[in-house]
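Reviewers of the previous submission asked for a worked example of the structure-prediction workflow described in the proposal, so we include one complete record here. The input consisted solely of the amino acid sequence. No template or homolog information was supplied to the procedure at any stage.
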Amino acid sequence: MPIYEYRCESCNAVSTALASISAIPTEVPCETCGKPSPRILSRPSVHLSARSKTARLDPKYDKRVDQAMRNTPMADPDRLINRRGDSTKGRPDG
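From that input alone, the workflow returned the following structure tokens.
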């Protein structure tokens, strides 16, 4: 279900409402002052997974990361993992 935005004409506060596409309210009461607020056109939002965000990166990015890793041995993730040590030490078996 999409989220619609409404702007109050008296106090300029923006309210949101979750509604189905078949029953879009043209006005909702303002959350601040309670007066009717007409619907406004807002920017659409798309939520991407981490994998799809990574896939959309510029291919040059991988080369830059590899170069930075070679130039900065302290930033090596394997070094940090090895430095952390065994995380199972001191835990009772459960």
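The mean pLDDT is 79. We consider this example representative of the routine output the project will generate in years two and three.
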